[in-house]
Design a protein that fits this description.
heterotrimer, A mainly alpha (about 290), B alpha+beta (about 375), C alpha+beta (about 350), A: about 290 residues, mainly alpha, MetI-like fold, 12 helices, about 75% helix, globular, C: about 350 residues, alpha+beta, Rossmann fold, OB fold (Dihydrolipoamide Acetyltransferase, E2P), 2 domains, six-stranded mixed β-sheet, about 35% strand
Chain lengths: ~290, ~375, ~350
């Protein structure tokens, strides 16, 4: 009886948050759902179209291309940033004055707003005035991200790595510093090599934070918008038109609200599904090997 | 397999210094025979763990040398000293099975599968881990994990020494008994030198052939459990070993007689005359005191202030004028009321001058 | 004022952490919860403090049902195994912190802090920071903080586990006096039987979330109702022997025969477990009725004043505790003696059916 009373109080406490979420997420989402199943010719006249928009989107080549570009981008980002972040965390000092210096310099890129990062790199990579672009061109390397899709991709990937590897580093470093010293001492005594120490002590103990790092990096990279929008605007051609850019083009550029709504719902479901898959797979591994120990 | 010799070892965590107060470990010399079972016993901060880490090579001493047989290993890192160490908290490799954990030190040293397998199986049987051989180590209880840590030390046939740093801290009392006796059995089987650091006298005394008692960075006594109990050379040893510890009381000394709280007790030995400036105390263990009914001839009149019945025996707190003594009694039925007579077993009464034991001449 | 648990259970997921526990604690006395790791001591304390709510059953304080009342409103204090103090506050401020939260006047704070500080022998440490104190003094500070607010219920969860052996001995000796002086209800969890015996008071033995017995500590020790209680409150471990009574004989396989004397003849034919403590196993015959058994020595542990001789009797492991120093080789065969007057006999349900003569006589 009494427990029930406690629960009701708890509901009351979460009400403000619930309202906030309702106004900022649920109601807009409902509007999107509304558009996704109807067609309009302006002046607030709506026609029920069922799943037509979804069918159209799923069968459209444009959606396929954006989707595969997006998957490729996230895959590349994860395969670079996760190992690189772990490697940097391993190389960082464990004590002394080097620790704050490393931590602060690692945190710096994370403090810069997305659009500023985009702008910085956009200028940095420009062939006429950018330090990077100009230097590369002077060295005789054919580099022009506004014309060459490969250069555009490389620019965006390098930028993302520069911007976000720090997050992986900081998380991994936190995971590493929670490993008690005796583990390293015991491993030394057992004659373990550096690789064995990594494989059997550091990696298992980092598993949980790495799961968070992978999830965060996946979701963020899968939804990337601002930076490519600022640097390349989705070009050259459609070569860097990722899903979010495509969506905006469709919704605001062409004002195709119905297909855009359907696409954004699909987009949402894809992210949800992939995040869930990542989470289940990795926490299953984690369950088997991380917790416990001491 | 080696004799371990410590030559003029001293260690300060703040680097070399002329101030003796900076030293966590004051100058000491010690030899550990190959195959012996030793315990380093003392309260926290006495330097016992520092000493252990110097032997294992986790710490390089500020002064002095460590020798394994004739070889100076002072500068040698842990991994090249061929020792094993078991820590306070069990260290297991979570992702490995018990088998893989035990095999790990051999695998790292490039042994073949044919060599490793029978040895792991044999050792697991000795440690009582056979049933869980293919379970992931992380799923086991604390005592099983500590057995694995121990097993990784024992698996290597040629270790110079196995070092234990308060290994039973996280183990329940009932299981402590099991692991302790198993450890002792394994020592007899394998004949490795074993050095065991603890603050727990029962663990130290039951495990070791020789116990090194440390206090404030110095060794106060080295001896067999029996010697430490029967003839503590320092009042600290008397206090630290035994539960409750030795009764220590200030006294006056006149040849073969001491005067405690105004009462004379005749001793079995004659003692030399002492300088007035020194502190003279008697020490007697609660086990060597006896109580009888009040006003028994030859006994000192005492008041009983407290009786703790701990099942197997009783700890009786008595007051002789202003000084309290602990007495261990199996039976108290002879005593009625709170008055009793206290008797000293004079063959086990010791005299301490400035905290150090002095010996008398038999009469 | 009293604390009562009525049929309290706590289920987490599908498993019972506490099942159907009923206990009644009186003020002024020390109540001990004794049991191995994971037997439910901490869970039970959290239920008493109101940090968790029971799945079933009720908690009563001074006759009032306080089951749903939150910890902040229960006037309970808790001391943990780890020394938990505010590192940047002095010992005085650490002890005073609960009073400051309760907005008590300056002079009264000083008065009350001084009083508990002297009770716990911290008078000379009040100006220091916790990190300048020894482990024992840090734990004293934590205990003082628990006592200062005059809580009705003080819960101590293995408070001495992280201290040195000798410091434990000291605090263990002082605690009963401190507890008696404050008059609150004290509940003290420990894994160590010897600690329970040294502290005295009343003990509840816990096993897999159930209370197996509750009574004065020495009574639980000398008169255990069942085999699990006897085992839980025994250090060194209890010696046991499974026997079968059949056709006027009581046997362990063909190796040991127990003569049917005292109350044994009245027992119906069945399986029994005989139990006796290590100090009731002897190296020489003391009485005519003593039973001689051949045993193989597994290992001998010597403490200086006593010897623990671990023996093997046809597959059964016993520990013999003898005073003095006795050295035996591994696998040496020796004669050991059992005194039937010291036997506890448990039936096939592990309930006590025969108490030792030595206990029953008192």
């Amino acid at each position: 009886m009494i427990e029930k009373q406690v629960n009701q109080k708890a509901w009351f406490m979460v009400l403000p948050v619930f309202l906030l979420v309702a106004f900022s997420a649920i109601i807009p989402l409902m509007t999107v759902v509304n558009y996704a199943f109807q067609d309009t010719f302006g002046s607030n006249q709506f026609y029920w179209v069922g799943l037509d928009w979804f069918k159209e989107i799923i069968h459209s080549e444009r959606f396929h291309d954006a989707f595969f570009r997006q998957v490729a981008f996230s895959a590349i980002i994860l395969t670079i940033e996760i190992p690189l972040g772990v490697a940097i965390a391993l190389a960082m000092p464990k004590k002394g004055w080097g620790v704050p210096v490393c931590l602060i310099s690692m945190a710096l890129p994370l403090l810069i707003p997305w659009n500023v990062v985009g702008t910085i790199w956009q200028i940095f990579a420009r062939v006429d005035i950018g330090l990077l672009g100009h230097t590369l061109t002077q060295l005789g390397i054919n580099y022009n991200y506004t014309q060459d899709p490969v250069a555009a991709w490389i620019t965006i990937i390098v930028m993302d790595v520069w911007h976000w590897t720090s997050l992986v580093v900081l998380l991994s470093y936190a995971g590493l510093s929670s490993i008690p010293d005796v583990y390293y001492q015991a491993a030394k005594i057992d004659g373990a090599s550096k690789i064995s120490i990594f494989r059997y002590i550091q990696l298992p103990k980092m598993q949980r934070v790495l799961l968070i790092a992978v999830l965060l990096r996946f979701m963020d990279s899968f939804m990337i918008y601002t930076e490519p929008f600022v640097i390349t605007g989705g070009g050259p051609g459609n070569s860097t038109t990722f899903m979010s850019i495509d969506l905006v083009k469709m919704a605001i550029g062409q004002f195709d609200l119905g297909p855009a709504a359907a696409m954004s719902l699909l987009y949402f479901l894809v992210i949800l599904l992939l995040s869930w898959v990542f989470y289940t797979v990795m926490s299953n591994i984690g369950e088997e090997s991380s917790n416990g120990g001491v | 397999m080696a004799n371990i010799t410590l030559k003029d070892i001293a260690h300060s965590y703040t680097g070399a210094s002329d101030n003796p107060a900076d030293y966590a470990l004051k100058k000491l010399n010690l030899t550990w025979r190959d195959g012996g079972a030793y315990a380093l016993l003392g309260p926290s901060g006495c330097g016992k763990t520092t000493l252990l880490n110097i032997i294992s090579g986790l710490i390089t001493p500020t002064k002095g040398e460590v020798h394994f047989n004739q070889e100076d290993v002072t500068q040698l890192p842990t991994e090249h000293r061929n020792i094993a160490q078991i820590f306070q908290f069990p260290v297991v490799y979570d992702t490995m099975t018990v088998f893989q954990n035990l095999a790990f030190p051999l695998k790292n040293r490039g042994r073949t599968k044919e060599e490793i397998e029978p040895r792991v199986i044999e050792l697991a049987a000795m440690l009582g881990l056979s049933d869980n051989l293919y379970t992931k180590a992380q799923h086991l209880t604390a005592d099983a994990k500590q057995k694995i840590s121990l097993g990784r030390g024992l698996i290597r046939q040629s270790v110079n020494a196995i070092l234990f740093d308060e290994p039973l801290t996280v183990i329940d009392p009932q299981l402590k008994w099991e692991i302790r006796s198993q450890l002792k059995f394994l020592h007899k089987q394998f004949g490795f030198t074993m050095i065991y650091v603890t603050h727990d006298q029962t663990e130290a005394l039951t495990f070791a052939d020789e116990v090194i008692v440390m206090y404030e960075g110095e060794i106060v006594q080295v001896g067999t459990p029996e010697a430490l109990f029967m003839r503590p050379e320092h009042t600290f040893v008397g206090y630290f070993i035994g539960s409750p510890g030795m009764n220590i009381a200030p006294c006056e000394l006149q040849g073969d007689t001491i005067i405690v709280e105004g009462y004379e007790i005749e001793l079995a030995n004659n003692y030399p005359v002492q300088n007035d400036a020194v502190k003279i105390e008697i020490g007697i263990r609660p086990e060597h005191l006896d109580l009888s009914a009040a006003d028994t001839p030859g006994g000192l009149p005492v008041t009983i202030t407290k009786v703790d019945d701990i099942g197997r025996y009783k700890i009786v707190r008595v007051k002789l004028r202003n000084k309290e003594f602990n007495v261990i009694m199996n039976e108290l039925s002879a005593v009625t009321g709170d008055k009793a007579s206290l008797h000293f077993d004079t063959s086990h009464t010791h005299i301490y001058v400035n905290d150090h034991l002095i010996l008398g001449e038999p009469k | 004022m009293q604390l009562e648990l009525r049929n309290v259970s706590k289920k987490v997921g599908k498993s019972f952490h506490i099942s159907n526990v009923s206990l009644l604690f009186e003020p002024g006395a020390l109540n001990i919860l004794l049991g191995p790791t994971l037997s439910g001591k901490t869970t039970l304390m959290r239920l008493m403090a109101g940090l968790d709510q029971p799945t079933a059953g009720t908690v009563h304080f001074s006759g009032k049902d306080v089951t749903g009342v939150k910890v902040q409103k229960r006037n309970a204090a808790m001391v943990y195994q780890q020394f938990i103090n505010y590192p940047n506050l002095t010992v005085f401020e650490n002890i005073a912190s609960p009073l400051r939260i309760a907005k008590i006047g300056k002079t009264e704070i000083k008065e009350r802090v001084d009083k508990v500080a002297s009770l716990l022998k911290l008078e000379n440490m009040l100006g220091r920071n916790p990190n300048e104190l020894s482990g024992g003094q840090q734990q004293r500070t934590a205990i003082a903080r628990a006592l200062v607010k005059g809580a009705d219920l003080v819960l101590l969860d293995e408070p001495l586990a992280n201290l040195d052996y000798k410091l434990r001995e000291e605090l263990r000796e002082e605690l009963p006096r401190i507890f008696a002086e404050t008059g609150a209800i004290f509940v003290y969890a420990t894994t160590e039987p010897s600690e329970a015996l040294l502290l005295g008071g009343r003990t509840a033995t816990l096993h897999e979330g159930q209370v197996t017995q509750f009574g004065s500590t020495i009574d639980v020790f000398t008169k255990p109702n069942n085999l699990i209680t006897a085992r839980t409150l025994s250090d060194p471990p209890l010696n046991t022997l499974p026997v079968v009574k059949l056709n006027g004989r009581m046997l362990y396989k063909s190796h040991v025969e127990i003569p049917l004397i005292g109350k044994l003849p009245q027992l119906p034919d069945d399986n029994y477990t005989i139990a006796f403590r290590p100090h009731n196993l002897y190296l020489n015959r003391r009485k005519n009725t003593d039973i001689r058994v051949k045993a193989k020595v597994a290992i001998t542990e010597i403490t200086g004043s006593e010897s623990y001789i671990h023996t093997d009797v046809a597959g059964v492991r016993w520990v013999l505790l003898a005073s003095g120093v006795h050295k035996f080789g591994i696998n040496e065969t020796i004669d050991i003696f059992l005194d039937p007057d010291t036997f506890y006999v448990f039936d096939r349900n592990e309930s006590l059916v025969v108490m030792p003569e030595t206990v029953a006589g008192v």
